[in-house]
Amino acid sequence: MKHLSRTFATAVAAALIAVAPACSKNHGEEGGDKAEGAEGTKDFVRYNPGSAPLDFIKVETVAETSGATSVTLPGRVSFDEDHTQRVASPIDGRAVSILAKLGDKVKAGQALIELSSPNVGQLQADAQKAMSDLALAEKAMERVHKLQGEGAVAEKDVAQAENDYRKAKSDSGRTTMQLKSLGVSPSDPAVNVALRAQIGGVVVERNVLVGQEVRADQASPLVTISSLDSVWVLADAYEQDLSLVSEGDAVTIRVPAYPGETFAGKVGHVGDVVDPATRTVKIRCLADNKAHKLKPEMFAKVDVMNSAGHKIVLVPAQAVLNDGDKSIVIVASEGNVFRARRVEVGPEIEGKVRLLGGLRPGEKIVTDGAIFMKREIDSQ
C-alpha cells in the first residue's frame, strides 16, 4: 500500500512539472502573448546567466523624451489659392482674340481674352433703363416727401415711393457693376469685351481657343493665373501624428527633383476632417518659392518640426524588425527571458523610430542583436 502511495505521488509531481512551463507561457506580459501561448507556439527564449548569446546583445530601457519633435509626411506641391485666379466669363460669347499665352507673366488689369457677344448691348440697354428708372424714382420720392410735409399725401404712398427708389437704386447698381466687370461703358455702344486679370502672376493653364464658344455657366476656367512666388504643399498626416503637428510649426520640404536641397515653410492649416479611405488629415503648408523651383503637382516630403514639447517614445531603428505586415521588438524581462512582441511604429527619422503602441516606458528591449533573438525564438 505504501508502495502504491509513493508511486501515485511521483506521478502527480511529474505531471505538475510538465504542466508548469505551459502555465508560465500562458501568462505573458501582454494579451498578445497569452493568445500566442494558447495556440501552442513558443514566442520566447530563456538563457542561463553567463550564456554566450548574452554577450552579443544590447538591452536598453524604453523611455519617453520631450522637447522638439519631427515627423515626416508625404505630400504634393499645389497652387497658393490665395494668389490664384481662375478666369471665367460672366456672359456667353465667342473668343475672338487670345491676348495671353501659356507661361506669360501678366499684371493685374491686363486683358487676357477678347470676347464678342450680343449680350453686351443688352446689358448696356438694361443699365441705361436702370439709371433712368432710378432718376424717376428719386424725383418721385422727393415729391412725396414734399407733399408729406404739407399733409397732402398718405403714409402708404410715401412708403411705396421709398420702396420704388430702393429697388431702382439696387437695379442700377447691379447693371452698372456688370458692365464695370467687363470694362464697358453704359453709354458707348459695344460688342466686344475683354476678360482681365485680377492679380499679377503667370498663366499656368489655358482652356480656350480663338473662335471657341464661351458660356457663362461652363465648369472649367478659361485661364488660370497664379503667383508662383509662393506655393502650398498639401501633406497627409495620419491620426496618430496629429498631436505632433500644429499651425505655425516650421517645416522643411524636400522634392525628388532637387536631391539634397531643402525648402523652408510653415504649417498654415491643419484639416478638420479625416479622410475615411486613407485615415489621414490634410496639412496645408505655405512655402516661399521666389526661384519657382517648386512646381505644382510635384511629390514632396514634409518634415514638420514641433516645439510644443510633446512626450514621445523613440527607439533605435535596428531594434524594430519588420515581420511581413507587422513590426516586432524583442522584450527582455526578468530571468533572461526574451519575448517577441508586436508594436505600432511611426516613420524612421535619423536612425530612430517612434513607437506608437505596444510598449510602455520602463520596459526593456533588445537594441543590438534583435535579429539574432528573433531567429532563436522562431527556430524553437
In short:
The protein is an alpha+beta fold. Helices cover 26% and strands 35% of the residues.
Written overview of the protein:
This protein is an alpha+beta fold. The protein folds into four domains: 26-66 and 312-378, conserved putative lor/sdh protein from methanococcus maripaludis s2 fold (Beta Barrel); 70-80 and 228-306, Efflux pump adaptor protein, beta barrel domain (Elongation Factor Tu (Ef-tu), domain 3, Beta Barrel); 85-112 and 194-226, Beta Barrel (OB fold (Dihydrolipoamide Acetyltransferase, E2P)); 119-190, Helix Hairpins (Orthogonal Bundle). 26% of the residues lie in helices and 35% in strands. It contains five helices and 23 strands. It has helices at residues 2-25, 31-38, 119-149, 155-182, 370-378, and strands at 44-46, 58-61, 64-65, 69-79, 84-87, 93-98, 105-106, 111-116, 192-196, 201-206, 213-214, 223-226, 230-238, 250-254, 263-270, 280-288, 299-306, 312-316, 321-323, 326-333, 337-349, 352-357, 364-368. Strands 1, 2, 3, 18, 19, 20, 21, 22 and 23 form a nine-stranded antiparallel β-sheet that branches. β19 (321-323) and β20 (326-333) form a beta hairpin. Residues 1-40 have low confidence and may be disordered.
